[in-house]
């Protein structure tokens, strides 16, 4: 229903089934929409929906990705260096979190967390090493990886799917299939302009955006 509503106000709304294949290296921002939804009731609708056009202060929470990604560090320690899960930087953080929270990753103590990572994520890592990250478009058993698209076309990573994305980085995978949870209203304006101008004129006006995955059919 949202798509048909958007067709009444935008020239080029994206279909909710649109899946993008994007370069992992191009995901250079992050926004913790899950935490925002818990802290701010006004953001819950954003977190629970997909393919929305978003404006306002929500975008102020998007931050650059930096080298202090504890999950990525922990994965490199475990999968590349062979460090046991409980000795990784990631699990040291989990141990601190368990002192403040009733559970972490759905686990009530470190033993449950170790078992979860050994039984689920060790297997997932080796699966990704063999098969890469599969598309979720025609497979209900695969949870999609979602991103947002900022006003200038930058990809903003969200909560959900972060284990797979960080494993992909450790494995050196180049691309990942994603769905778009939301687009900045300014990016939607650019999508509309692409529809109005046509490829040649758009490429002349926005040469760096002409090959953007979200503008491809």
UniProtKB/TrEMBL annotation:
This is ParB/Sulfiredoxin domain-containing protein. It comes from Halopseudomonas laoshanensis.
């Amino acid at each position: 229903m949202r798509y048909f509503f958007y067709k009444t106000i935008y020239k080029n709304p994206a279909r909710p089934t649109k899946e993008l294949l994007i370069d992992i290296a191009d995901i250079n921002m992050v926004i913790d929409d899950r935490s925002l939804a818990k802290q701010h009731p006004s953001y819950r609708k954003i977190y629970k929906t997909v393919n929305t056009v978003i404006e306002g202060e929500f975008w102020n929470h998007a931050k650059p990705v930096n080298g202090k990604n504890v999950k990525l560090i922990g994965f490199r320690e475990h999968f590349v260096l062979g460090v046991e899960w409980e000795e990784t930087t990631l699990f040291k953080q989990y141990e601190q979190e368990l002192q403040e929270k009733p559970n972490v990753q759905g686990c009530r103590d470190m033993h449950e967390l170790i078992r979860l990572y050994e039984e689920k994520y060790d297997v997932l890592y080796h699966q990704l090493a063999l098969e890469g990250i599969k598309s979720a478009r025609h497979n209900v058993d695969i949870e999609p990886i979602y991103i947002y698209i900022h006003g200038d076309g930058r990809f903003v990573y969200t909560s959900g799917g972060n284990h797979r994305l960080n494993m992909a980085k450790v494995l050196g995978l180049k691309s990942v299939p994603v769905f778009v949870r939301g687009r900045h209203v300014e990016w939607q304006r650019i999508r509309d302009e692409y529809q109005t101008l046509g490829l040649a004129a758009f490429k002349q006006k926005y040469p760096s955006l002409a090959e953007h995955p979200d503008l491809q059919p």
